[in-house]
Amino acid sequence: MIAPVIRVQGDRVTDASTTSAVANIGVVGLAVMGSNLARNLASREGNTVAVFNRSRSKTDELLAEHPEAEFVPAYSYEEFAASLAKPRTAIIMVKAGAGTDAVIQALTEVFEPGDIIVDGGNALFTDTIRREKAVRETGINFVGAGISGGEEGALNGPSIMPGGPEESWVTLGPILKSIAAVAEGEPCVTHIGTDGAGHFVKMVHNGIEYADMQLIAEAYDLIRRGTGKTPAEIADVFAEWNKGELESYLIEITAEVLRQDDAETGKPLVDVILDQAGAKGTGAWTVQTALSLGVPVSGIAEATFARSLSSHPEQREAASALPGPDEVFEVADADAFIEDVRQALFASKIVAYSQGFDEIRAGAAEYGWNIDLGAVSKIWRAGCIIRAQFLNRIADAYAETPELPLLMAAPYFADALTRGQAAWRRVVIAATQAGIPSPAFSSSLAYYDGIRAERLPAALVQGQRDFFGAHTYKRIDKPGTFHTLWSGDRTEIEAEDTH
Ligand SMILES: NC(=O)c1ccc[n+]([C@@H]2O[C@H](COP(=O)([O-])OP(=O)(O)OC[C@H]3O[C@@H](n4cnc5c(N)ncnc54)[C@H](OP(=O)(O)O)[C@@H]3O)[C@@H](O)[C@H]2O)c1
Hints:
Elements: E1 6-9, E2 12-15, E3 25-28, H1 32-42, E4 49-52, H2 56-65, E5 72-73, H3 77-82, E6 89-92, H4 98-110, E7 116-119, H5 125-136, E8 141-148, H6 150-156, E9 159-162, H7 166-179, E10 182-183, E11 186-187, H8 197-227, H9 231-241, H10 249-259, H11 269-272, H12 282-293, H13 298-310, H14 313-319, H15 334-367, H16 373-379, H17 390-400, H18 411-434, H19 439-452, H20 458-469, E12 482-484, E13 492-494
Parallel strand pairs: 3-4, 3-6, 4-5, 6-7, 7-8
Antiparallel strand pairs: 1-2, 8-9, 10-11, 12-13
Helix pairs in contact: 1-6, 8-12, 8-13, 8-15, 9-10, 12-13, 12-15, 13-19, 15-18, 15-19, 16-17
The structure holds NADP nicotinamide-adenine-dinucleotide phosphate.
Residues 29-34, 53-55, 58, 93-96, 99, 102-103, 121-122, 147, 150-151 line the site of NADP nicotinamide-adenine-dinucleotide phosphate.
């Protein structure tokens, strides 16, 4: 009798008694993200990577361009399944939506119970919840994993946010750890929670990214219009900021973009790029989900709306004759103004992240996920677009108080807001007086003032609701629910709580 071949691959021991089942991991979808992720996997010790793409040409191209990766190509789903050692593990990197459903369907037909299908695309978390439920019926494990960092991250080390069943993490964990970015010696991947938790957290990551980018853009605009500095000079300002508490990938690339001149015209590139920002939808998902959860992510919402506003040229044209303020905007002390803007940016950024983490907290409560918010901030420290030193402070805050009700109230952030609030107010006032749109700066400040207020005019809103709809109200001085007989003698009665 011939003994089965036992192959040791990374931390896994697999039965590879069938000669063709040589790969410990497979990738389906070999466009930009999939091909880079497959190359990343192949470059790590112990991995043999099976690859498959719907149209053959992408597979052949990848093989021809990267013979060093020693990929195991497959040209049908059957061949792909046969090339994988058990439990079969495949990462799907195809167009989100119908493409993902089609590939999942095809894989479930050739995979067996215990195998693992990972969707690494940008799926909406509710789709992931639905898919996980359907795939689970077949005995196959389904994992929705958010992967951030674009093509560069996929190749050299992304930040990975996997959801799905805990059992799948045993097999998948070592593989994902081997390809993830590393921050201070720790791989930027952790099991986020069950079913759609990974894609939920990736969605909020993207929402925070929208807010961060918009805040930086507003800072640039204010400095440029207030001080008359050129984009290249402002690039120096951002490069300097990148040495301090604002240190982050987005600040770093902002300096690069501002320093770039257009080869054709010789003008700063930022001046020849059409000022209409696109979006792929994850910002909108973050806001839509926050609205359903009742979480005020106003910074993310304003950033998403700012992109929409920019992308309506016909409306902008129609509004172009509307007047702005008469005075010319010119700051008296450029250095002092720039420092104010820096502080306003940091304060607003704290609000945006606090709101994003609030959404994750609320999502976890709604969907029954046990999400470690400190671990989430740690896996964003490298590989992803919002990577920054700042995330260490968030991890510290949750390490100190895991049940923190509001991130921005943690001591480090509260101190920063206390130090920055005067500058923040000066900047919002200056922008308002100058007629320079700063929706993310000003909405963050409004959130700060709202959430810290001892008393809000929400009391009046409750009075109005009771007046026109008998929606009732509660009192500050005694328990119970009340209604005033507005159309009667205006006496107050106890009532059923109708919210
Ligand atoms: N690009 C980024 O920076 C980035 C960052 C993070 C996450 N993502 C996500 O990663 C995923 C892949 O992105 P991408 O830019 O590499 O590719 P993509 O342009 O979103 O999708 C193209 C790939 O999907 C395949 N595909 C589409 N419909 C299919 C179907 N019905 N059956 C089988 N395959 C199908 C295509 O196969 P054919 O070659 O046969 O057409 C091709 O391999 C997406 O979900 C994307 O949102 C992208």
